[in-house]
Amino acid sequence: MPSNAAYDLAVVGAGPAGSSAARRASQLGLRVLLVDKAAMPREKTCGGAVSNRAQGYLDFSLPLHLLDSECYGARVRYGALSSEGRCSERIAVLVSRERFDSFLLQKAQESGAEHRMAHVRDVQDEGRTVLLRTPVGEVRARAAILAHGAHGNLYQRVRPQDTLAESGICLEARVPAAAAPLPPGLIDIHFGVAAFGYGWVFPHGTYCSVGVGGLRDRFSRPREAFEGFCEGLGIPARDIRARGHFIPCGGVRRTLAANRLFLAGDAAGFVDPFDGEGIAYAIRSGQLAAESVHESLRGHEDFCAGARGYTARCHSEFGRNLGYSLLVTRLMHRFPDLLLRIFAGDRRVLERYLEVPMQDLSYQGFLAWLALRMPVSLLKGALAARRTA
Ligand SMILES: Cc1cc2nc3c(=O)[nH]c(=O)nc-3n(C[C@H](O)[C@H](O)[C@H](O)COP(=O)(O)OP(=O)(O)OC[C@H]3O[C@@H](n4cnc5c(N)ncnc54)[C@H](O)[C@@H]3O)c2cc1C
Fold first, then answer.
1. What's the whole-number mean pLDDT along residues 257-262?
2. Read out DSSP for 108-143?
3. Deepest in the core among 183, 216, 234, 308, taking most CB within 10 A?
């Protein structure tokens, strides 16, 4: 029976998840409306590291003018310990989210998606259609993908609200590059400055993204931690305007779809809890959600099968790995003086870990390798401590 919907699919949020969903759905021939409450380009609090994994999910290359700098490795610190790990290949590029997200939106529009600026106040599943309510009118579609990020509560139409243990909080600011110099090609990660999280310095050419983030149930004073972190870097905190943002803790099993409503990106909770990477999973989950909606519409509107298929594909492609990342995170932060010390003190451990974002190793593989490496790392740490005593 034909529905009275103007669109096959409405996508809420034009971040990486929403724009990727809209592009894939349009390519599959669906009539797509992509709605965002912000005028583009809009600010997004983010370190702006776009991994190889993320770039590999895109069906186009990023133009050179979008790339602020390149990342080949990391310098990791924990207390007085510091180690540097470098790969022969590039791990990620650093972008400004304003320009990156605008580019992804442009790619969605190029493939046929219609873009509209409107704040979606509510979404209702009406059985055969979904209804979006905005201050400038209502929109009906045959299905909706909710990709509104970590803020807002529309996702609660599909799953319960995240608990404080399932969500993180970050403070981030841009400082002139000269204020936080880094070795070429490296990003800086500081453990121990945020509970169940870390502090970072990511280079963007003329400026650096500086921030702290940790789990909300443990990280009670983010402002103080941020100021302490900046002061430790030699940057007077009073001169900095920091922006706060929530970030979901991935690896937790969440409901991803209910009938005609699908969640993607941060709204679905897809962020690596150990390193904070979310852009890759936003892009991929948006694409998978779009494919599932398309299959459901083609398969006589069987949205239960679509929701099941979407959940299974997210789990097998990256959800399982995020589950192991959560295990690594919990272990590292529960025994920081043992495990974070090894991570920041044994260069081989850091180099092996870098194979995870390079996609050469899973978190499960890293964990198994780390268990075998532990005696060597501990011995190296003890000898280093004796030498400096
Ligand atoms: C401080 C910080 C640093 C980070 N650094 C990195 C990093 O370096 N690398 C990385 O991979 N990940 C990083 N992440 C995670 C990454 O930013 C997110 O995982 C990613 O942006 C998720 O994309 P998304 O499309 O789901 O949501 P978003 O990018 O948040 O986009 C959501 C969009 O929805 C719109 N919207 C919201 N509500 C509504 C509504 N009701 N109606 C209409 N529109 C709406 C918003 O305006 C926005 O444009 C970081 C996160 C934080 C907080």
1. 97
2. HHHTT-EEEE----EEEE-SSSEEEEETTEEEEEEE
3. 216
